[in-house]
Specification:
149 residues, alpha+beta, 4 helices, 32% helix, 17% strand
Length: 149
């Protein structure tokens, strides 16, 4: 198959050379249950074509991936009777990435579940992020960078 990384566990799942509990498959995307779920119903959605993460993501995969995410999100909401859903996507080790084939985590959410909403976590992250710069200055830096590329 084209665009396969033979050391990549998710490419192996796409090729059906490794087992996975697949919930949705299209020509260009695959969704399967996370082997160590954060909560019941934790699903991973991936492009079949190997990209390491967002930094080298092949944009031609985006529509198919988003379509798969939407289909699985709606199904998950009903299947789990969830109140909402959080999508997580990590890039590089420092960003929390442990499997280096692009994937979105779909995490069903329930009123009062406390996930990702603990104020001390958010405040600690805010204190470290963009130290010394205001939101307008940070926006300027991002815009300048986009114009340069
Ligand atoms: P990351 O930490 O890179 O954002 O997420 C990787 C996710 O992949 C983790 O939640 C982990 O549990 C899951 N995972 C790792 N190896 C496998 C596997 O072989 N099969 C499945 N189904 N999930 C895996
Ligand atoms: Zn891969």
């Amino acid at each position: 198959m084209e665009h396969v990384d033979y050391n990549c566990i998710f490419c192996a799942i796409v090729a059906k050379r490794a087992p996975a509990n697949i919930v949705y498959e299209s020509d260009d995307a695959l969704a399967f249950m996370d082997i160590h779920p954060i909560v019941p119903g934790h699903v991973l959605v991936i492009p079949k074509k190997h990209s390491r993460n967002l930094f080298d993501f092949d944009e031609s995969c985006a529509p198919g991936l988003m379509r798969a995410e939407r289909i699985v999100a709606r199904a998950l909401r009903t299947a789990m009777n969830a109140d909402g859903l959080t999508v997580l996507q990590s890039n590089e080790r420092v960003g929390g990435q442990t499997v280096f084939h692009y994937h979105a985590h779909l995490v069903p959410r329930f009123v009062g579940d406390g996930l990702l909403t603990r104020p001390e976590q958010l405040h600690a992250a805010q204190a470290r992020a963009g130290e010394g710069l205001g939101p307008a200055e940070i926006a300027d830096k991002i815009r300048a960078q986009i114009q340069n590329t």
